[in-house]
Amino acid sequence: MKATVIKTSLARALKSLRKTATMKSYVKVSIDGERIVLCTMGSTRCHYVTSVFASVDDNQGCAYVELNQLTRIVTMLPSSVVNVEGFGDGGLQLKSADAEYCIFPALNIVEFNLPDMKPNAEAKTFTLSVAVLHEVLRKVKYATSDELTRPALCGVMFTIVDGVLTAVATDGRRLATVDYDTGDNALTTSLFLPNQVVDKLFEVVRVKWRDFFDFGVSVEFAVWGKFAKVDVESACFSVLLEINPDLQFPLWKKCVPDSTNRRVVFPRDRMLEAISRCSSWVVGRYGKGVVFDFSGEGCKLKFEDDGFVFRESLPCHLESEPFSVRFDPRYVADICKAYDDDMITVTAKADDNNRVRSACKFETSIPSVALLMTMRND
Known about the structure:
- This protein is α+β, with helices and mostly antiparallel strands.
- The protein has helices spanning 7-18, 67-76, 130-138, 195-212, 268-282, 329-338, and strands at residues 2-6, 26-32, 35-41, 46-53, 55-58, 63-66, 81-87, 91-96, 99-103, 124-129, 155-161, 164-170, 174-181, 189-194, 218-224, 227-232, 237-242, 262-267, 290-295, 298-305, 308-314, 317-318, 323-327, 343-348, 360-363, 368-372.
- The chain has 3 domains: 2-112, DNA Polymerase III, Chain A, domain 2, CATH 3.10.150.10; 124-254, Roll (DNA Polymerase III, Chain A, domain 2); 258-372, DNA Polymerase III, subunit A, domain 2 (DNA Polymerase III, Chain A, domain 2, Roll), CATH 3.10.150.10.
- It has a 9-stranded antiparallel β-sheet. An 8-stranded antiparallel β-sheet has the order 6-2-3-4-17-16-15-10. A 5-stranded antiparallel β-sheet has the order 5-1-7-8-9.
- α1 runs antiparallel to α2, α3 (130-138) crosses α4 and α5 (268-282) packs antiparallel against α6.
- It is elongated.
- The relative contact order is 0.11.
């Protein structure tokens, strides 16, 4: 293995992998065509692959070295051009100007017993544009859980039935869903993306969407056997996931209220402004929340604790009887930030005292739904 590569490109690729790798992780360095391919493993049995263009002299062999050590050495190299060459059984030699480094092979080479990265003939595949995937992830990722004892909630579930993609995320207190028609009516499959993959994928598509705004740039998904692959070819980034057959995502449709008797429409921007002024008083107070009173006179936000009283009013359009509900304002803000519509509709089921004690549904003009559990409203 022998090639010449630009230092900044190699350093950027290694930095990208460090964000997804474990603390003591190794990287496999190989050559495919005219690119140096870097592969490492994340903390969720996910193999992350990225590559950089290079001038290749020999594409035979590969190296297995420690990721952090390779990153530090590449950063310190004096010249903008780096000569990369393999030696021995998995070692790597770097030359730049008058500097020369030899990195001996990693001891834990068994970590790179990689399955075939190419989907087989029975793989179920679908494609989303960068713009679509960016919006899908933006509207659900805020509802994922970071509680590692509940791995089934630490990610986003993609389900496709008759060509309609449904992305769902929940942490047990809130739930977010969004639908998108893939155009392939014969496609039915499912794929769970862990938080680590979701965050990295969102970072990649956000850069592509922001810098190029190219709806033609696509992200390819493939599911076969116990593996799944996500490939952003234009960004030279791929993820290979080992599917956990024991992971059972919750039956989230049972959480959606089948009937409601209250309905209100409020302005998204005004709600965000009001929440930003009161949320600092609520954070850190266990069990405390803000009471939202919806009536014909508008929406009134109320919070009382230790002699402190906060009240603010904003306009709303009530389409039912008045009702009252208590929310954690940070969760309401997350929902508002995920949508672009000027107005958000809330539907709920209230009791005879006009109090809501079950999940409330937040909706806009797009095919997306957010559910938020209420807090005690005694």
